[in-house]
Recover the amino acids of this structure.
C-alpha cells in the first residue's frame, strides 16, 4: 500500500527480528553556538531480521508509551508494522509509526554484561533529559557504544537562515552516559553553519553546562 504525503512517498510494511540495541530517539535544534536544544521523542530499536522491502538490518522508531507498555530489551524478538520514512535527510531511523507490535520471544536475563556498554532496560525520556548529553565520537557510536542505552544518533536541524526560516539537516552522535566511562571520546568538533558568515564550532564547551547536574559516575 502506497501513500503520497507532501510530495514524498511513504508506505506501510511488515517487519520481524531481534533487538540488538535500544537507544533514545532525539531531535536536536542548533543555532550557531547560542543554542543546542535536545528534544526527546521516544526510542530507536535496532533490529536484525527481515522487512517487506528486503532489509536485514534496520531501525524502528517507537514511542515512549509503547516502550513503557512492552518493556522491550536487547534480545527480544518482535514483529510489527511500520511506515518507511518520508524525509531521508531528516530522519535517521528506517521505519516510523510502528504498530501491531508483538513480542515473539523474550530475551534471557544473562544478556546483560558488566558495563560499559550499558545494555539494560532503557530509562524514561525524562531521565535522558535530566542527565543531558555530551558530544560522542561517531566511530565509537558505530563500535563500542552501539549497544549502549546511553548512546544516541540524533536528527539534527540547523537554523541556517532565521529571516527565511531555512534549515539544514544532518545526523550527530551524543552520549548520555557516565562522565567516567572508559570508552568515552568526544570526537571531532562540529561546525554549525549560518548564512553569509563563517561556521561556529561546537568543541564540547556546552557539554559541561548540559551535564552539570550529575557527578562523574552518574
Amino acid at each position: 500500500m502506497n501513500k503520497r504525503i507532501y510530495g514524498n512517498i511513504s508506505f506501510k510494511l511488515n517487519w520481524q527480528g531481534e533487538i540488538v540495541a535500544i537507544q533514545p530517539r532525539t531531535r536536536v535544534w542548533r543555532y550557531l553556538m547560542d543554542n543546542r536544544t535536545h528534544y526527546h521523542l521516544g526510542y530507536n530499536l535496532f533490529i536484525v531480521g527481515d522487512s517487506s522491502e528486503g532489509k536485514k538490518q534496520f531501525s524502528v522508531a517507537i514511542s515512549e508509551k509503547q516502550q513503557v507498555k512492552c518493556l522491550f530489551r536487547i534480545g527480544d524478538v518482535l514483529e510489527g508494522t511500520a511506515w518507511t520514512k518520508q524525509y531521508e535527510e531528516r530522519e535517521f531511523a528506517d521505519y516510523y509509526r510502528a504498530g501491531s507490535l508483538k513480542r515473539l520471544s523474550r530475551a534471557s536475563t544473562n544478556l546483560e554484561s558488566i558495563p560499559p556498554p550499558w545494555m539494560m532496560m532503557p530509562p524514561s525520556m525524562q531521565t535522558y533529559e535530566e542527565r543531558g548529553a555530551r558530544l560522542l565520537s561517531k566511530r565509537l557510536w558505530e563500535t563500542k557504544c552501539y549497544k549502549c542505552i546511553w548512546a544516541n544518533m540524533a536528527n539534527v536541524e540547523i537554523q541556517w537562515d532565521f529571516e527565511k526560516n531555512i534549515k539544514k539537516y544532518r545526523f550527530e552522535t551524543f552520549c548520555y552516559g557516565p562522565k567516567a566511562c572508559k570508552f568515552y571520546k568526544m570526537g571531532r568538533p562540529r561546525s554549525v553553519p549560518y548564512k553569509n558568515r563563517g561556521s561556529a564550532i561546537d568543541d564540547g564547551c556546552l557539554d559541561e553546562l548540559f551535564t552539570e547536574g550529575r557527578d562523574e559516575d552518574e
In short: DSSP finds four helices and eleven strands in the chain. The first strand starts at residue 2 and ends at 5. Confidence is low (pLDDT under 50) at residues 1-7. The helical segments are 64-70, 125-131, 138-142, 207-210.
